[in-house]
Every structure is written in structure tokens, then in C-alpha cells.
Amino acid sequence: MVVETMLNRSRVPSGLRSVQLVPELEDATTLQLGEDFSSEKAQPLTISEVSILLSRKRDMMRELEGPRAEEFSSVFKKFLEYVERFDRYKGLEAATNVRSLLQRYESLDPFEMACLANLCPADAEEDKTIIPSLKHKIDDSSLNQLLQDLASFTH
Amino acid sequence: MGFFQVELTKNVRVHPRHFHSKLKETLIQTLMDEVEGTVSGRFGFVVSVLEVLQPLPKGILREGFGFAIYPLKYKALVFRPFKGEVLDAVVTNVTRHGIFAQVGPLTIFVSRHQIPSDMTHDEETASYISVVEKAERIQRDSAIRLRVNGIKIDASSFTAVGTILDDYLGLVE
Predict the structure, then answer these.
(1) Of A49, A79, A73, A48, which Cα lies nearest the Cα of A61?
(2) Where this protein primarily resides, as one coarse class (chain A) (predicted)?
């Protein structure tokens, strides 16, 4: 399925319409995220890290006086609400500990690390079902250990 | 998953009235005003500018106009959904056709056919209730874990469809 982006259909001749096959080639289950989101170009963040970044930004904005103080985009507000609800580790210390723990498992892709932290599966079986790309990368007992350690940082 | 830090570039146009000591602040503020909250098919939702890379580049004056263009490089926090990934989402609407859930501003639709058949739609309470476990009920504000099955990109936004059929998906919290 070819998807059209951005150009108004009725004004642009069909030959010049820009098309993007982007979504068709992507598949998170096999870590195909496209070139823009390869591990060299993009760093996946955990929800806890995002929560810290967004609340810092909000606090910074509040310190400014005048009309700018509450001028957050609706995108910002909605994501702030989302991460506050789904942040499992709460706080800079826990988020940092989680990140350090994950970095030790070098066989994991950064995207997998972020998924693991965000979804917090109960055991290796659940984990390998919801993040299939992990299946052959790590043995169950190491994975169970990692999940237990992650759980110890949750709030 | 979903959230990434990426490096982006933006040509920020500045009017000559800003060519003074506060130019740097103006540049950064203009960048934020122009990109934060926007959506693109390529990078997803731009949630926040994290850092503008220093040193700032020199401005290029547009011939015939007084404006200068600054090709700014910056780090941004973006949210970009991917097909196949598992996400937690908040239910906003329940109908007999399916469930609408949100991840921030992104709406994900889970059709009736992507909901386990042992859950029935209850019109009165606008929810899906498990026939096996009556306490298990999906309604507005419930959190559900879903897998994104498909993403469609149009002019200025994404829509996504998902499923809660597979193991370990469904109600969370």
C-alpha cells in the first residue's frame, strides 16, 4: 500500500505527488525501523527518561513569566500526561539505575532495551512473546535475572 | 519504544529586527515555536527540542530580502510509532465496532475483530467485559496493552490500528 504525504491531491499533477513507502518496510518485531531510526541515528528512550525530560521542560517554562509560561503544545501536554501515568520507575535515580542495568546487556538492541523497561514483562516467556526480536539473543535465565533486577527498581 | 532522541535540522528564518545581542535567544525560541508540537510522517511527533547544537551556524542572507536563514541542528525528543511494537494505551472510547485508545495524541483503533471473542460488548456500560472473568472490563480510561498492526500516514498526522488478541495483551494495571 503506497501512502501519500503532505501534498494536496487536487492541486498537484499525479506525476509529481510525493509518495512514501515508509510504513510498509518497517517492522518492530524484526527491528526494521528504517534508516532514520537506526541505532546510529536515534536513541530510544524509556518512558521514565521521557518523563524526566518533559517535567524539566515544564518546570523551566513555568519559571518564565508572561504569556509563554503555559504555552505548551497539545502534543506536549498529552505526552506529559501519558508518561506520568506509565512511568514505572519514577525519579532520576531509578531511571539512571535502569539505564545502567540495561546497558550491561550488550546483546540487546537499544530499542529492545527501551521496550523491556517500558513494558516490564513478568518473565522471559512473556518478554519473548511481546518482543519477538529477543528470542535468540538472550537465554531465558539471563533474561529472567534482568527482569527481576528491573522489577526491583519499580515503584 | 516509541520515544527517541534524534538529530534534526531546520532552516530558521529571522527578520533583521532581531539582529542584535538577543539573536541567539530569538533563534532558539523561533525554532521551538516552529517545530514543537508538529507531526511528520518521517519523524513522528516532535515533542520537545532538547538541545540546539553549538556553535550556532552563521546566517545566510537572502538576496533581495533582509532575512537571514540559519540552518540549525538540534536534538529533539520525538514519538514515532512502528508497526509490530507493543505499547500501553489509554482507552478513550468504546463502541460495538471496537475500542479507541490513545498514546498521547496518537489514536489507535482496535477493531472488534482484534478483541478476544471471550469479551463481549456491553452497550449500557460502554465496555467490553470478559465472559470468563466478570471483573475484567475494558472501558474509558482503562489501560490496555496492544500491538500496533498498521500505521497510516496522511498530510499531518498518523492513525494506527492495533490488536489485543495475542497472549499477554489486553488490560493492564
Answers:
(1) A73
(2) nucleus
Q: B116 with B170: CB under 8 angstroms?
A: yes
**Residue A6: its chain B contacts at CB < 8 A?**
41, 155-156
What lies within 8 Å, CB to CB, of A16 at 6+ separation is: A7
C-alpha closest to that of B156 among A78, A75, A24: A75
CA distance B30 to B56: 14
Find the length of chain A: 155
- Name the residue facing A41 among B6, B46, B47 (closest C-beta): B6
> Cβ contact (<8 Å) for A22 and B169?
no
Query: Can you tell me the distance from the alpha carbon of B95 to that of A153, in angstroms, rounded to the nearest whole number?
Result: 38
Residue A11 has pLDDT above 60, yes or no: no
Total residue length of chain B: 173
C-alpha cell belonging to residue A152: 526491583
Cell reading at A41: 541515528
Are the C-beta atoms of B15 and B27 separated by less than 8 Å? no
**Fold adopted by B3-79:** Dna Ligase; domain 1 (3.30.1490)
Strand partners, B44: B40
Closest CA to A1 of B108, B143, B8, B154: B154
ipTM: 0.92
Is the CATH number 2.40.50.140 carried by domain B86-171?
A: yes
Q: Coil, strand, or helix at residue A122? A: coil
Quick: pLDDT tens for A51-64: 999 999 988 888 87
Cell numbers describing residue B21:
545581542
Of B4, B41, B166, the CB nearest to A5: B41
Spans of all domains in chain B: 3-79, 86-171
The three grid cell numbers given for residue A111, joined into one nine-digit string: 530499542
The β-bridge partners of A101 are: none
The torsion angles phi and psi of A100, rounded to 5 degrees, stand at -60, -40
Q: What is the pLDDT of residues A111-150, one digit of tens each?
A: 999 999 999 999 999 999 999 999 989 999 999 999 999 9
The answer to whether the beta carbons of residues A88 and A120 sit under 8 Å apart is: yes
